[in-house]
Amino acid sequence: MPPAGITFTGVRVLAGERQLLEVPDLHLTEQRISVIGPNGGGKSTLLQLMNSLIEPSYGHVSVNGLDTIDAGSDVRQQVGFVFANPAAQLVMPTPLEDVELSLRGRIKNSRERRAAVRDCLEHLGIADLAERSSHEISAGQQQLVALATVVVLKPRLLLLDEPTTLLDRVNAGRFMHTVEQMCTAQQIQIVTATHDLQLAARAQRCLMIEDGAISLDGAPAEVITEYIRRTDHASLPA
Amino acid sequence: MSTVLRRRRPRPLQPRDQVFGQRAPGNSFLHRAPAGLKVTVLAAVALGVMIIREPQLNLAVLAAVIIVSAAARIPAGMLLTLLRRIWLLLAAMLAAQLAFNDLVTGLEVFSRVLAGLFSAHLLILSTTTHELLGVFRALLKPLRLLGVPTGKIVLAALVTLRAIPYLADQFYLAGQQARARGLERSIRARTVPVLLSAVAYARDTGRALCARGIEEIN
Question: Which residues cross the membrane (chain B) (predicted)?
């Protein structure tokens, strides 16, 4: 077994001259991790480093022992990513075909592939959406389909970048419940970037990122309390 | 003293224009006919009117469209939405034709365009986007032998198709936002948000496809 978890060593990400993120040393092994912090602080950059959508300018990021630059496509095979905007993640006319598209490379036989897709949709409780039009279903349903397109590949790590920002409370709750149940059952590690502090509190470890650096790292309750204290203080009139 | 209660007339809410999925209800012979056959007939009709250029033929095609759509029980209103949507374009074209051509030629060109457009509209009304895409995929297949990356073309077509209803929504939203600020006449207020959201949408779609490792659709 390769070493499990995500490791950052001496990581710096530069966009031209500007530094977006600096993570000198970080090792993530907890099953559920949340990332909070202000807009533009570097949350998305941190997540995208973990599936090599962004490569570090300096230093190394490795996922389960694989370096994200040397083995970028192997890393992406192990890592699923769900984005905030559900509409932008689906390309096929129906959910069934979209999930099937993910599997094209893995299962050649089209009947087996379709069965695997139906299984996956069933598992997520959205079997009834299989043949509806992808852009007519609600945002909450679209986000569950986007999740299906990713988890059907059985990732070892799931990255969620503000997955519930565009969902109402009920749909957001349903989405996260589905994710957590599945990840516990299948031993998938989850990293969630979010502004929803209740959601962030459900993790086992919480990172706060601001101004391109990890400013707090620890148990969610403490990190979130400190975040609220700091932001309340910052938003008071001078 | 009595006050007369007059019923106020609120500005009617415009239903959002549905760009796709505006398939006519029903399951007639026309709905069930294979999409490939319908596309072939449409191509033949379009080529016919363009090569033969006879007003009688154009009128015959229009009459045939009306008869077939009536037989397939497609609501006349749905067929005519085409005119509502592009009347300005048609009017401009007719004016240009009458200005630069003689009356007979002008009317022939105009009726030819109408014949082509209504035939195509009938195809769209009786066929799902999904079926049309299947035809597109099948048509592209032979090109693969020439080394054309057809999988990438199909993926591009799919992304385009999905982007259109999204952008239509963004246009509507930008219009409402501009109106809320009293800027309904500002082209900038109506277009800049759409451009920005289009770029963000493109970037998000690209990232999502990249994260899923999808480069083409075969």
Answer: 35-53, 59-80, 113-136
- Amino acid B11: pLDDT: 63
CB atoms within 10 A of CB B141: 11
User: Virtual CA dihedral for B35, B39, B41, B44, nearest 10 degrees?
Assistant: -170
Contact A35, A193 (CB under 8 A): yes
Q: How far is B88 from chain A (nearest CA, A)?
A: 29
User: How many domains, in total, are found in chain A?
Assistant: 1
Tokens found for residue A204: 């086992």
Helix (H) or strand (E) holding B114: helix B103-126
Question: B7 in a domain, yes or no?
Answer: no
ipTM > 0.85, yes or no: no
CATH of the domain at A26: 3.40.50.300
Please give the tally of structural domains in chain B: 2
Tell me B148's DSSP state. Answer: -
Please tell me if residue A133 touches chain B, with a CB cutoff of 8 Å: yes
**Residues A168-224: pLDDT tens digits?**
999 899 999 999 998 999 999 999 999 999 999 999 999 999 999 999 999 999 999
Report d(CA A40, CA A15) in Å as an integer: 13
What integer is the mean pLDDT of B134-156? 89
For A91, the closest of B129, B209, B218 (CB atoms) is B209
Picking from B60, B33, B209, the residue whose alpha carbon sits closest to that of residue B128 is B33
Residues 6+ apart with CB under 8 A from A21: A11, A12, A13, A42, A45, A46, A49, A209, A212, A213
Distance in angstroms (rounded) separating the CA atoms of residues A141 and A134: 9
Mean pLDDT over all residues of chain B?
86
**Chain A interface includes B210 (CB < 8 A):** yes
Per the structure, the complete domain to which residue B117 belongs is given by 28-127
Contacts of B212 in chain A (CB under 8 A): 81, 101-102, 149-150
